[in-house]
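The aim of this short unit is practical: by the end, you should be able to scan a pair of folded records and say something sensible about each. We start with the first protein, listed as its amino acid sequence and then its C-alpha cells.
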Amino acid sequence: MRPLYTPGPLVLGLLVARMVLPGGVLAQQAAGADTLAERFFAVVRARSPDLAVGRAEVAAAEARLLAAGPREAPVFSAELEDIPDGVDVPKAGQLRVMLEREFLTGARRSANRAVARIQRDAAASRFALLEKRLRVGIDRDLIVWRGWQAVAARFAAEDTLLTDAEAALRTRFAGGEARYVDVLRLRTERLRVQSERTAALREAQTGRRRLEALAAAETDALEELRLLLAQRWDGAANLRSPPDVDSLLAGGGALRLGDLRVEAARAQSRRVAASRGTQVAGGLGLQRFGDEAGGFQYGPSLRASVSLPFTVGRSTRALTQAAALAVTTVEAERTAATARLRATLLIACDRYEAALARVRVYDEALLTGARDEREGALGAYRAGELSLIELLDFERALARAETDRYRAIIEASTAYAQLLMTAAGSPAGETLSDGEGTNE
C-alpha cells in the first residue's frame, strides 16, 4: 500500500531553500543591545584585571602630564675663600652667597608638556580599544555558548523523537512486523545523534569558560550569566548588515594610535631642538671680602651664563636629522599599518558577508512548517504508513537543516565580532616612548 505520508517533497524543499530562498529572517538592523549582556558587561568592566591595568596607565599618564614642564627650582650656592688655618670659617677672606636660576625655558617646558599630553592621549586610546575588544569578546562568547547550546538542544529533540520511534519499533518487532536490522539501524542513529550532541556541548563550553573567567566567580556576574542562558535565543535577529570598511577604519580607533605615534615623534623632534637652543642662566647674591684695614666690606654679586650651541653645531645637526628621520619613519609605518589594516578589514568583511549569505538560505517559515510535521511523521510511522528509513531520512534532513542554520548564525556572529576586533586592534609598534635619557 502506498504510504499516506511522503516526506520526499518536504526534504527536497528544504534542500532547495538552502540554495535559493532570500533571507526572510535575517534582521538588517540590530533590535538593540541585550540588556542582560549590558549588565554583565558593566559587572565585568568594574572588575576586569586588564581594564584595571588600563585605568592605572591612564592615571599614571595624567599624573605625568600634570608634572610635565615645571619651572626649574632656583639654585642656592655659597663660596668661601682664604679661610685662616683652613678651619676658621667666620674669618674667611672672601664669602659669596648666590641665588641662581635659568631663564627662557618656555620652549623646553612646552615641548615636554606636548610629549606628556600625547602619552596621556595614547593611554586613553589604548584603554578605549581595550574596552571595545572586551565588549565584542563578550558578545562573541555569548553567541558561541548559546548557539551551540541551541545545536545541542536540537540534537536532544532528535534523540527524543528517535526514542519514541524505538518504542514503536519494539512493539512492531514483538509482533513480528519489523526486522531486527531496523532495531540496529535505529540504535546506530541514536548513537550518532548523541555523539553530535556531546560535541556541540563541548563547543558551548568554550564560550562558557571564557565568560566565567571574566565573571571571576563574582556572584552577581554569574547570576547575569544564568539569566542570559535562560533567555530565548535567536541569533539571526541580532545580525547586522555588513559595515562600510572605510567608516569602520575611520571610527574603529586603531589608527588613532598610529596618528599619536606620529605626533609623539614630531613633539620629540621639537624637544630635541629646544634642548639644543641657547640656554641663559643668571644669579644675584651677596659678597663679603676683606679690606686693607683688616676688616670686611660687603657688596652685591651678579652672575650670568649663556650656552654656546654653535660650538657643537655638528652634534646638534646630527640630533636634529635623527629626530627628523624618526618622524619620517613613523609616518611611513602609519601608512603601511593603515594599508595592512584596511586589507585585513576587507578580508574580514568578505568573510562576514559570506557567513550572512549562508544564513539567508535558511527560511524560518519553511523550517517551522517542517517542525510541525514531525509529529505527523512519527504518527504515520507508528501507524505503519511510513517506513523507518523514510522517518530517519526526514528527521535527519530536518535536524541537519536546523543545526546548519544555527552553525551559520554562530559563524556569522563570530565573523562580525572578528571584524570589530580587527577594527579595534592596535597597529604594530604602538608603544610610545618619551625618549627620556636619550637626547637630554
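Turning to the second protein, read its sequence before its C-alpha cells, just as you did above.
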Amino acid sequence: MPTPLIPPVTPPIPRFTPASGALTGPADGDPLVAASVNDPFKQLADRTTLSFNGLYGVYGSRLIASCLDGNLIVLNNQAAVRSSSGILSGNLGSPVDISVVLGAPVANTWYYLYGSDVLGVLTPIISTDPPEATLKYRTSNANQVLISMFRTDGAGAVRPFYHTTNGYQYLDPVNLVSLATALVTTPVPIPDAPPFARGASLSVRGDNDTGSIASIFLMLTGFTPTNPYEMRMTPSSNPGTLRTINNDSPRIPIDGDNGFDYLMDTASSYATINLMGFDY
C-alpha cells in the first residue's frame, strides 16, 4: 500500500529534521522494505519545503517595469517568482500592451500587475485589486504575485514611469499644488501614490512677493514634528524687484494617498508642488 510522504506542517518549530547532512538510503543486499526508502525521502521532502519557503516572495532584477509611451508596459525578466503553490521564472511577456489587455482603461485609476502560474507559464495578470498587507500577493489570491503597478491619467493613458524594486519615478511630474498659499496647516492628498506608499519625492517652488524671508513647511499628515522640512525663500538680490523664486527637491514621509500637510508663514508667498515619485 502506498505511503504518503508529507512535508512538515507550518508553523510548528523546528520544521525540518534533519535540515542538513547526509541522507542514508538503502544499500545493496538490504531487506526490500518500504521504510528503507521512505525514511530518507521524508527528510528530502523536508529540505525541499525548506528551499521552497526560502524563496518566499523572491523576484529578480532591480528594474522591474517601465512605461514610456502611455501604453506599453516593459517588464524585465524575473529570476524567480514564488506563489503559494509554486516557483516560476522567465519572461512575463514584455512588453504588455495595455490597450489589448484592458481595452479602454479607467481614467485616474490604480492598476496592479501580478505574475500568475497559467498552465505552468508565468503570465501577467492586471487588476484594480490591491495587494494584501505584505505587498506580496493579490488580496485573497496568494497564487498571484505582485510585480508592478501603474496609474492612469485623466484620459485613461498610463502615466509614464520607471519602477525599481521599492521605488517608483514618474517621468512626467504630477502637479499637486499650484501657486497656492496656506496660512493654516493644509492637507495635500496624493491620488497618484498608492495607499501603501510611505515616502514621496517632490519638486517644490516658492514664490515670494514680500521682499522678506518666507518659508514653506512640509510634514506628515496629522503629525506635528519638532523640525519639519522647511524651504526658506530669501529676498531677491536683483535691483528693482521684490519677487523671489526658490526651488528644492525634498523627499518627505507621506501617508499613502492621504499625502502630507503644508504650511506657509507669509500671505504673499505661493507654493507650487509636484510629485516626482514615491517609495513603499
